[in-house]
Amino acid sequence: MHHLIARGLLTALLAAASISSFVLDWRSNHLLNPAWHPHAQFHGALLLFFLAGICAVSIWLLWRRSREPEVALKVAALISASFWTPFFYVTLLLPGSTLWAGVPGHMPKIAGLSFYPNVATAGLFLILTAIAYWLARSDPQKLNQT
Fold this sequence. Notes:
By secondary structure, the protein is mostly helical. The chain has one domain.
């Protein structure tokens, strides 16, 4: 039973990542922002479609018949983690970039510290990805019977 819950959770996480990225990024504060260079807009849109494609392939891997379902589980978990972990370090690698997409100077604060909703979301998705992976791995006999 754990393996089905894990697959369902990973499916939901991958679908939510893809769909929410289109909903949140195909807007005036991101891809449709006239201040963005047209080629940066191209790369942003390319990333969204790549994410959608790779999430769709991961979901297919999770649910197809396979002699090695643990491979699909690992791939799906790694893809989810690969998308969400850069939220914690990309601004260190790309000076001048920011996690905040809202109006400059109007970043939310909690206890005087900057709060980035997208980083909180990334953390939640990473925790749920780890839980899904752990659930599936805690029931290896069932995982290999599907």
